[in-house]
Structure formats: structure tokens, C-alpha cells
Design goal:
Layout: H1 11-26, E1 30-39, E2 42-52, E3 61-69, E4 75-85
Antiparallel strand pairs: 1-2, 2-3, 3-4
């Protein structure tokens, strides 16, 4: 085991790591990123994915997923925080 400190991820590396690992676990590829935040525990990324593809596309069912990564870019958890039709505006 090496005693050298791990190199911290850049924002771009964190985005790629979150997207790749989320897709590997769920089969869903992120279409957009809504949030990227560095925390004391690593990174938090919120990604939009198409859960159910419909025609027209505005009727597709979207999911907003929160992905957490440790400082080295390993996924430590994910959860769906919202599900909605693509064409709906946010009422919050």
C-alpha cells in the first residue's frame, strides 16, 4: 500500500466518474448535470436521466439522481430524488 496522498479530482473528472458509475449500475446515461458540489466527503453530483423514453420526447419520464463520490472518485451512493415528465415545468 502506498503512503502517497491521493490526487484530488477536478470537477470534470468528478462529472465523468459519476456519469460512468451511475450508468454502470443503473443502465441510465446522464443527459444533463443540475448540480456539482465539492464537499468534505468528496463530491455530490445531480444528474438528469431519461427513465422512460416516449414519443413525443416532451412526454419522456425523467429522473433526477443524486450521486455521491469519495475524494478519489469512487461512487459511495446514489438515489433518485425526483421523477417527472420532461415537458413539465418545476413548481418549486
Amino acid at each position: 500500500m502506498s503512503d502517497s496522498p491521493r490526487q484530488e479530482l477536478t470537477a470534470g473528472q468528478a462529472l465523468r466518474a459519476a456519469g460512468e458509475q451511475l450508468a454502470e449500475l443503473t443502465g441510465l446515461r446522464p443527459e444533463g448535470i443540475c448540480r456539482l458540489e465539492r464537499t468534505d466527503a468528496g463530491w455530490v453530483v445531480e444528474a438528469e436521466v431519461v427513465e422512460v423514453d416516449r414519443i413525443p420526447a416532451t412526454m419522456s419520464v425523467m429522473g433526477l439522481y443524486e450521486v455521491t463520490l469519495d475524494p478519489s472518485g469512487t461512487l459511495t451512493g446514489y438515489r433518485r430524488v425526483r421523477r417527472y415528465e420532461r415537458g413539465r415545468t418545476d413548481s418549486r
